[in-house]
């Protein structure tokens, strides 16, 4: 849903009506009708109006979501609000997701990077740990921005690009940044999709998933598990997979889950045994949902109880 509350307020402050604005700028009746219906204007149209009124286009037109959690994240992201849900999601998910994959940065160091864009690293912190922390912040931003879009291979590949560009891996000729793997890999001794099969398997997974109606947290957990079985990238699959899960929770108004580093062994066991026993991974992810609910309660952010029935 699109809100033009900012446009209405600006026009009122300047003593200009929509008809007058239309005449001054030569706007079509269709454009004015879109504003009245709350439909999205093109970037060109809203920029033209913003230039004429001397304000930023972001002030005039805003996307408003019925998903309360997503709306709070978008508002706080735009405001650059400190100490809110957006701030805590960035720090907690980035720290835990990276630490699961072996990052040496502590949660305090992760928080310092997010809050001050600086770091007192001391000794022994690989530069890629710092880069991938900053990149993960930007990847969460991208997830929030694209949350309501249908999940596609292009979105997934771009998340990988955000995470891995400019890292040491990107200097390797055989490492495809922002694209599917070129070399076969195994995970915990388990075979994953061969490079020649990745596109076919990803296409099939997304077609099956996107065809679902009334997506539940269990559907998203299944998507995550099957994504990790395919293991489409040379490296970074876990982080990309958890970002995809966050996006889909926000898309379908499901309370997100943050897998804590202290649950890593349970999480890995759940992924490894998914096709034999679904309960282990499901329980771990629902525990991560519990963590998110406690954060919502602490910040007094309302949420749909129906989406927390399993908690």
Task: Give structural attributes.
single chain, 311 residues, mainly alpha, 434 Repressor (Amino-terminal Domain), Fic-like fold, two-stranded antiparallel ribbon, two-stranded antiparallel sheet, 15 helices, 59% helix, 3% strand, globular
Describe this structure in words.
The chain is mainly alpha-helical and 311 residues long. The protein is built from 15 helices and four strands. The chain folds into two domains: 2-63, 434 Repressor (Amino-terminal Domain); 68-308, Fic-like fold (Orthogonal Bundle). A hairpin with a 2-residue loop joins strand 3 and strand 4. The mean pLDDT is 93.
Mind sketching the topology for me?
Blueprint: E1 2-3, H1 5-14, H2 18-25, H3 29-37, H4 43-53, H5 57-60, E2 62-63, H6 68-79, H7 85-100, H8 107-116, H9 127-146, H10 153-164, E3 186-187, E4 190-191, H11 198-210, H12 217-230, H13 237-251, H14 264-272, H15 279-298
Antiparallel strand pairs: 1-2, 3-4
Helix pairs in contact: 7-8, 7-9, 9-10, 9-13, 10-13, 11-12, 12-13, 12-15, 14-15
Brief account:
This protein has two domains: 62 residues, lambda repressor-like DNA-binding domains (434 Repressor (Amino-terminal Domain), Orthogonal Bundle), CATH 1.10.260.40; 241 residues, Fic-like fold, CATH 1.10.3290. It is 59% helix and 3% strand.
């Amino acid at each position: 849903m699109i809100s033009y509350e900012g446009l209405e307020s600006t026009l009122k402050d300047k003593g200009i009506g929509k008809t007058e604005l239309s005449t001054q700028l030569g706007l079509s009746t269709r454009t004015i009708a879109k504003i009245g219906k709350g439909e999205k204007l093109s970037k060109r149209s809203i920029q033209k109006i913003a230039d004429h009124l001397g304000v930023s286009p972001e002030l005039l037109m805003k996307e408003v979501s019925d998903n309360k959690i997503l709306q709070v994240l978008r508002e706080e992201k735009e405001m650059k609000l400190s100490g809110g849900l957006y701030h805590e999601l960035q720090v907690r998910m980035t720290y835990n997701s990276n630490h699961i994959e072996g990052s040496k940065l502590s949660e305090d160091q992760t928080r310092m990077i997010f809050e001050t864009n600086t770091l007192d690293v001391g000794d022994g912190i690989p530069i890629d740990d710092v880069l991938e922390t900053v990149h993960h912040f930007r990847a969460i931003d991208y997830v929030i921005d694209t949350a309501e879009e249908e999940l596609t291979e292009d979105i997934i590949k771009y998340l990988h690009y955000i995470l891995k560009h400019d890292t040491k891996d990107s200097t390797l000729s055989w490492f495809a940044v922002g694209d599917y793997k070129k070399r076969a890999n195994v995970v915990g001794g388990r075979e994953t999709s061969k490079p020649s099969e990745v596109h076919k398997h990803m296409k099939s997974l997304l077609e099956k998933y996107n065809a679902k109606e009334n997506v539940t947290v269990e559907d998203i957990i299944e998507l995550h598990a099957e994504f990790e079985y395919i293991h489409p990238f040379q490296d970074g699959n876990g982080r990309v997979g958890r970002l995809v899960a966050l996006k889909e929770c926000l898309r379908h108004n499901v309370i997100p889950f943050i897998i804590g580093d202290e649950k890593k062994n349970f999480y890995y066991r759940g992924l490894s045994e998914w096709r034999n026993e679904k309960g282990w991974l499901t329980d771990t992810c629902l525990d991560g949902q519990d963590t998110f609910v406690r954060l919502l309660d602490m910040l007094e952010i309302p949420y749909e109880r129906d989406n927390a029935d399993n908690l």
